[in-house]
Design brief:
The complex is a heterodimer of chains A (about 120) and B (about 220). Chain A contains 4 helices and no strands. Chain A has a single domain, classed as Cytochrome c-like domain (Cytochrome Bc1 Complex, Chain D, domain 2). Chain A is mainly α. Chain A starts with a helix and ends in a 7-residue tail after the last helix. In chain A, helix 1 packs across helix 4. Chain B is globular, with a radius of gyration of 20 Å. In chain B, helix 6 crosses helix 10. Chain B has 10 helices and 2 strands; from the N terminus they run H-H-H-H-H-H-E-E-H-H-H-H. In chain B, strand 1 and strand 2 form a beta hairpin. Helix content of chain B is about 45%, strand content about 0%. The chains are: A mainly alpha (about 120), B mainly alpha (about 220). The interface between A and B is medium-sized, with 23 and 25 residues.
Chain lengths: ~120, ~220
């Protein structure tokens, strides 16, 4: 009986870890599809739209010092409502009608991985 | 009385012949489209098939099932003979430039393929809604409020080419695109491109503002 319980526990654990990488892969795809146009495939703020005429510098997500100034809620506001939601440039458009809530949450986690920082708490 | 009936009959016959001819040209164009293998990169049967990002990335070229509602006929026939890149970057790529290697068609093939493509229309495009004109409100939205210019090239002040590179260029969009399609695309993006890199602006811009932007973009014509 104990062996069966152990097997069941292992199966549950395995399925948990099987789902997590798939969700992470989806988030990376979402990032590359929507965000990389301006922020670059690696999130360094160097996407193909950033020509010499681009009026602002898109956020470099690997800059821990700058990213640490933002809370997760700040990032969410900017993704949903665009740059002006945080008194930043409208060159960051609102994605609230494009992305699902799960995609936005995934992107916030991805940005935290890119900056390797936790951001402003509270 | 007999004269009127004869004249009416002649008119009907003329109409039938001309309409039959258009159908024949579209059918011939479909044949040329298939023979040239255009369907390997472009699908022509709507409605839109893309449901996920994977679906979009699997495509090799833009969908054409509403080409007759999207493009202007004169532009399309000329472009098929001498195609020039519309998106600065390769289709679905953010790193590679457009290789400018779209196949060229001979004049007669281009004419019949144009007839075929112009026969592909969408009911979601309402005719006669957008009149191209200078539009300060549309310009303000395009360049500042919801900066379309971040992703789309256009000719700005002092005839300077400016704007981003991830979206299709809108230089001379008023020659290429049907003004009414520009508005329909903004109002109902899910009909034409359910999965696309451009944000959905429905509910963020009013219908009136979308009309202003459409008028502004439809007025992108060659600078004299």
């Amino acid at each position: 009986m104990k062996k069966i319980l152990n097997l069941a526990a292992f199966a549950a654990l395995a399925s948990h870890f099987a789902v997590a990488p798939a969700a992470a892969a989806d988030t990376i795809q979402v990032f590359k599809f929507y965000c990389a146009q301006c922020h670059g495939l690696e999130g360094k703020g160097d996407g193909p739209n950033v020509t010499k005429d681009f009026p602002v510098s898109p956020r470099n997500f690997t800059d821990a010092k700058e990213m640490d100034k933002l809370s997760d809620a700040d990032i969410k506001n900017v993704i949903l409502d665009g740059g002006p939601a945080m008194s930043k440039s409208p060159m960051m458009p609102p994605w609230g009608k494009t992305l699902t809530a799960e995609q936005v949450d995934g992107l916030i986690m991805h940005l935290r991985q890119l900056c390797n920082c936790k951001g402003k708490q509270g | 009385m007999m004269k009127y009936i004869t004249a009416a009959s002649a008119g009907f016959v003329l109409l039938a012949v001309s309409s039959g001819s258009a159908w024949a040209d579209a059918a011939a164009g479909k044949g040329a489209f298939d023979a040239k293998g255009c369907g390997e990169c472009h699908y022509t049967d709507g409605p839109a098939k893309e449901k996920t990002i994977e679906d979009q990335l699997a495509k090799k070229g833009p969908e054409l099932w509403y080409a007759g509602s999207k493009f202007q006929k004169d532009w399309l026939s000329a472009w098929l003979i001498d195609p020039k890149p519309i998106r600065p970057l390769k289709f679905n790529s953010l790193t590679e430039d457009n290789p400018a290697d779209h196949p060229k068609l001979a004049g007669d093939e281009a004419a019949s393929v144009t007839d075929f493509l112009m026969s592909l229309t969408s009911d979601a495009v309402e005719a006669g809604k957008v009149k191209p004109k200078k539009n300060p409100k549309g310009r303000q939205i395009f360049t500042k409020k919801m900066p379309c210019s971040g992703c789309h090239q256009y000719v700005g002040r002092k005839k300077k080419l400016t704007g981003g590179r991830s979206g299709p260029s809108l230089v001379e969009a008023g020659v290429r695109l049907n003004p009414d399609w520009i508005l329909a695309y903004m109002l109902k993006p899910e009909v034409f491109k359910p999965v696309k890199m451009m944000p959905v602006f429905t509910g963020l811009l009013s219908d009136k503002d979308m009309l202003n932007v459409s008028r502004y973009v439809a007025n992108f014509k060659p600078k004299k």
